[in-house]
Amino acid sequence: MSKKRKIRVGVIFGGRSGEHEVSIVSAQSVMKALDRKKYEIIPIGITKQGQWIAGSAAIKFLKSGIKKLPFKSVLPPDPTEKHLVKVKEKGLTPVSEKKPEITSVDVIFPMIHGTYGEDGKLQGLLEMADLPYVGTNVLGSAVGMDKIIQKQLFKQAGLPVVKYDWFLVLAWRQNRKKIISRLEKNLKYPMFTKPANSGSSIGIGKCHNQQELILGINDASQYDRKIIVEEGRGGIAEIEVSVLGNDSPKVSVPGEIISSNKFYDYDAKYVDGKSQAIIPAKLTKKTIRKIQAMAIKAFICLDLSGMARVDFFVTKKGYQIYLNEINTIPGFTSISMYPKLWAASGLPYAKLLDELIKLGLAKQQEKNQLATSYQPKKDWYK
Ligand SMILES: Nc1ncnc2c1ncn2[C@@H]1O[C@H](COP(=O)(O)OP(=O)(O)O)[C@@H](O)[C@H]1O
Ligand SMILES: [Mg+2]
């Protein structure tokens, strides 16, 4: 019997995002845990400048921050190719003209959080190249990144969200007085100022008065052209659940985050190492069931697939639930919530990765069955 060829998994990390560093740590955990008996792993790093470098040295180069790479890798958006080509650092000349070095990949595991990785742009390139990949498609990724559009869709689906308002940075620059008075009329302090597209709490501020509100909006404006301002909820537990699947997703037990800072900011998430997770979260059975049902509804409402971590605020008094946001490429270190919630629900880390790869391949198969051309009765266009 011939030995089955291993599945070649390209794990993509780094990227042009404020979450570049987090992504490297997530990808390292994924690559360490992928079963070598089943998979051949191709690390694919993307620098902060957006250059791709595939191969075993990718992590080292990204961590060193060196701008001059020994070579680059290119993924052509041509579906008949499905491989990476090694090219010279300058220009797009193959490293060897006579024997261009190419690496084929069977499936991509995108592990880039935030812009150019979690927001549908990378997924668009992979769709063009016809490469199967783990996680959500272009639409779900893009909407999942945009805190304004997703809240509009959640509201429409009857899912509870906090009170919010939003505006363009352009409008802020033109008439900040008008915006401030609108915000102060409609929302109570403290308010949270956020760039519409961000993650890891980058650009997010908690504002207790008008002065802080102005500073918060100015800070958020560095990251996006759209700003969302939310009414801050006090006395809340931050509850997260993991969703896994394509068209019939399943949901994990919930976990609670106990933040080491006043709110769950970048330092509390990654740097000080003092935030804690309580798994499973101590909630009533009824509240757990409600949260799980809402998480599935949110996943379907945004047309997601593969995986998502769905985050909630639950008031400690009265157990009022608010859907905060959805993350389509959640943190994936061995201590991250997404895999930990699955481990607590009976699916260990390595098995979770198997499942995600299977789901990515299944989605591709399903897509391949759809017609992509139409044969007109006459060649009318010639
Ligand atoms: N409306 C709010 N009320 C209370 N706390 C909030 C609110 N919005 C954000 N926070 C706090 O800020 C953190 C980050 O906000 P979030 O919208 O989840 O952004 P990110 O996508 O960067 O994780 C939350 O985990 C929470 O601690
Ligand atoms: Mg969050």
From TrEMBL:
ATP binds at residues 147, 192-194, 200-201, 230-238, 324-325. Binds 2 magnesium or manganese ions per subunit. Keywords: ATP-binding, Cell shape, Cell wall biogenesis/degradation, Cytoplasm, Ligase, Magnesium, Manganese, Metal-binding, Nucleotide-binding, Peptidoglycan synthesis. PANTHER family: D-ALANINE--D-ALANINE LIGASE, D-ALANINE--D-ALANINE LIGASE A. It is found in: Cytoplasm. Its EC number is 6.3.2.4. This is D-alanine--D-alanine ligase. Mg(2+) 2 binds at residues 325, 327. Its cofactor is Mn(2+); Mg(2+). The keyword Nucleotide-binding applies. GO terms for cellular component: cytosol. The lineage of its organism: Bacteria, Candidatus Buchananiibacteriota. Its main location: cytoplasm. It holds the Pfam family Dala_Dala_lig_C. Residues 151-358 form the ATP-grasp domain. Pathway: Cell wall biogenesis; peptidoglycan biosynthesis. It catalyses: 2 D-alanine + ATP = D-alanyl-D-alanine + ADP + phosphate + H(+). One of its GO terms (biological process) is cell wall organization.
